[in-house]
Design a protein that fits this description.
By secondary structure, this protein is mainly β. 0% of the residues lie in helices and 36% in strands. The chain has strands at residues 16-22, 28-34, 43-48, 55-56, 64-69, 75-80, 87-92, 99-100. The chain is globular and about 45 Å long. The N and C termini lie far apart (35 Å). 23% of the residues are buried.
């Protein structure tokens, strides 16, 4: 929808969506979703703001959740349980180069980009 609440339009109906993030500039939406009868296989997807170009970026049997765009829109940080506990991963906006950046035995969740000091 538009910032003033007009122009509301449904983009998809088949997916269950938990969280989402609008890219800088507003051209794309990153979100975590699952399809089917299991809630343990959440994946990170992106879609253009006009509802076209739906793409799944992660393919795991465990949760990939909480996507957040980098300020320049070139990368997405997210939480993944692919290593048996929640870890922070970062990937390019096209889904390539998925890298664990926390490598922690504790659970790390809800990543966010912060300005450098």
């Amino acid at each position: 929808m538009n910032a003033d609440g007009t122009g509301l339009r449904k983009l998809r109906t088949q997916l269950w969506i938990r969280s989402f993030a609008l890219s800088p500039g507003g051209r794309q939406i990153a979100f975590d979703a699952f399809e089917g009868d299991t809630t343990t296989d959440w994946e990170i997807c992106v879609i253009n703001s006009d509802g076209t170009g739906l793409r799944q970026l992660t393919y795991n049997t465990r949760e990939d959740i909480d996507p957040t765009w980098s300020p320049d829109g070139r990368r997405i940080v997210f939480t993944s349980r692919r290593d048996r506990n929640f870890e922070i991963y970062v990937m390019n906006a096209d889904g390539s180069d998925q890298t664990n950046i926390s490598r922690s035995p504790a659970w790390d969740e809800a990543p966010a980009w912060q300005p450098a000091d």
